[in-house]
Amino acid sequence: MSGKRKTRIMGILNVTPDSFYDGGRYTDRELALKHAIEMYNEGADIIDVGGESSRPGSLPVSAEEEMERVCPVIEMIKKEIPAVISVDTTKSSVAGAAVDAGAEIINDVSGLSFDPEIIRVAAEKKTGLVIQHIKGKPEDMQNNTVYDDLIKDILDFLTGNAENACNKGVTRGSIIIDPGIGFGKSFEQNYIIINELRRFSETGYPVLVGLSRKSLIGRLYDGEEDRLPATIALNAAAVLNGADIIRVHDVKAHRLAMDSVDFLKRVRAD
Predict the structure, then answer these.
(1) DSSP state of 156
(2) So where are the chain's domains?
(3) Does domain 8-269 have CATH number 3.20.20.140?
């Protein structure tokens, strides 16, 4: 990534009742639309719409219910603002319906491992594709966080699945990789990944990081401290270490922070 390129911000829009931070806030479609417009005006480059929680311990919902949650909201957003819309799903049927509704990126937290048909949808509809690493499934992913070689194992998963997608018709330039902070990783492993993001950047794929307000921050404190300051600090570190896109709940604060980080990178590059 060039040191002169602006960090892209992906604003989180969970239209779910049970997501760990904002579950239930935006199940009303008008409120979801209002929040999407607010995030766009605050500087979000991408609006990531999710209809199924992937927090640790969460259980799946049916494809039909997930479509009913995300597709009408995507259609409404598309009519109101020119932001790029991504759909956060692991199901090919939901991905296809969401793209038909206006989504341009499929964000698969399973890294194509739950439903490989997502590859076909991305290839046929020529969408962007986020391939994220996960170990296990959301309901059990924190039960086994043992790796032979943490970074190598994650890189092998991501690059192998990316190459498989390319071999089946997905354009290499449309792929984004995500190491999956919090998805089958221990507290310490998450910080190791942030420190080693340059190795992910060296693959040539843009790197997305999603650590906003997660337990790797909450566990730093004894009480219920606001997780936003540490979220901004860690996202700044992630960008300086090679992340191209950050997925966040608090867009305005991150846009202001990343403007300074991006300027620092430009000065360093010059």
Answers:
(1) H
(2) 8-269
(3) no
